[in-house]
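Reopening this ticket.

The earlier resolution said the output was attached, but the attachment link was broken on my side. Pasting everything inline this time so it's all in one place.
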Amino acid sequence: MGMLNDQDKQRALLARAIAQNTPLIILDEPTTHLDLHHKFKMLKLMHELAAEGKTIIYATHDLEQALDLCDELLIIQGQQIEMHSPKAAIEAGIIQQLFPKETVEFDPANKRFFLNK
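Inline output:
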């Protein structure tokens, strides 16, 4: 039996979670190592599972992705943990405060990050 590449491992882990038919799926960086097409395919599947009533909890460093897809964000900074809807986190300025302004600029209207040149 051949070895799975990282992309196939990610998809296999989600497939196993679906096959187990649990109401809760916990994933750690499920889109890491995926090319753009497979990343969006994985996100679409996660979104469809959530629409069917499953609870999906996943860790990600892709804040733009989380702002677009998640119902709630659990933001962890050092010892501080906060839970907000994406809209509330943006409106309260929490997202803008996550990175140094001299490096990262956040556009709240479009929910996108940019290099501060």
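Reporter confirms the inline version is readable. The first strand starts at residue 24 and ends at 28. The mean pLDDT is 89.
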